[in-house]
Amino acid sequence: MKNISLLPPEIKAEQRLRQQLRLTLLCSGVVVLVFLCIYGGLIFLTYQEKNEANGLQEQIAEIQKRAVPYQKYEVLKADVDTLEKINNAAVGGIPNWYCLLAEVGSEVPEGVWLTECTASYNKSDGQQTQEGTKSDQTQNTQVSSEGELTIRGMALAHKDVAAFVKNLHAIQGVDNIRCQFSSEQELAGQKAYEFEIKASLPVQKGGD
What we know:
CATH architecture of the largest domain: 2-Layer Sandwich
Low-confidence stretches: 125-144
Structural class: alpha+beta
Shape: elongated
Number of domains: 2
CATH topology of the largest domain: Alpha-Beta Plaits
Largest sheet: 5 strands, antiparallel
Helix content: 40-55%
Radius of gyration: 43 Å
CATH superfamily of the largest domain: Ribosomal protein S6/Translation elongation factor EF1B
């Protein structure tokens, strides 16, 4: 059996139009809802980022506030650095003894222990030289500087002393390394060798 609609064609067309309109409105509503969700998400993320930025700004302000009492130390450090530069220029390149002795300690091999490590610095005036012609003369005064490193200690064997001397050659600025003596001793009922090593410390020359 077939369903026969007795409605006029105008009413049928109006019903189809209403159905299409409802479908269009439904699709439009879904699209608008999706856009609203996206927009709301963006607003939420923006608000969250803004809160985080405000929090960071507050932390920075708090850190800067806490750092104010320490700014005077920064000024003092700058003054110390300036004085250190002036002092280094005045002494004509004296080595950094702390770093030098630390490097020596790092090169001590197994079987060797140090009993004394000293460094000295000598500064002596050189000769004055004059060069020139009848119309021009130049006078130059040089100041020669040199240092000496003295290391004393004990070793379990002569080879340990030799290894230590070899290691010292790796230290920059240490030259003319020589073992002054290595003599056998008895230490706690065991043989040991007392030694003394000396080295030259070339230092930059200064002049006027």
